[in-house]
Design brief:
The chain is of the alpha+beta class. It has one helix at 44-74, and strands at residues 2-3, 10-17, 22-29, 32-40.
């Protein structure tokens, strides 16, 4: 389970259904499932690639911001 950054009462759950060839992403509000998304297992690598690319870009931006802050503090 992954908690939403906005509120701990909101969460994302991931459930594998190997027998159906699916992974289900479900959105939860407290104990109520608010929605689901079924993704074919063969599409999971593409989703991982998109998440990885976003993480790489975000990390690069954060690193650049930290470097700029250090230079500003030293200046």
């Amino acid at each position: 389970m992954y908690l939403d950054a906005r509120s701990p009462s909101r969460a994302l759950r991931v459930t594998w259904h190997h027998e159906a060839g699916l992974v289900v992403l479900s959105l939860w509000r407290d104990t109520t499932c608010a929605g689901t998304f079924r993704l074919a297992i063969d599409e999971v690598p593409d989703l991982i690639d998109v998440l990885r690319a976003g993480l790489d870009a975000s990390y690069s931006v954060a690193l650049d911001q930290r470097r700029a802050a250090r230079l500003s503090d030293a200046g």
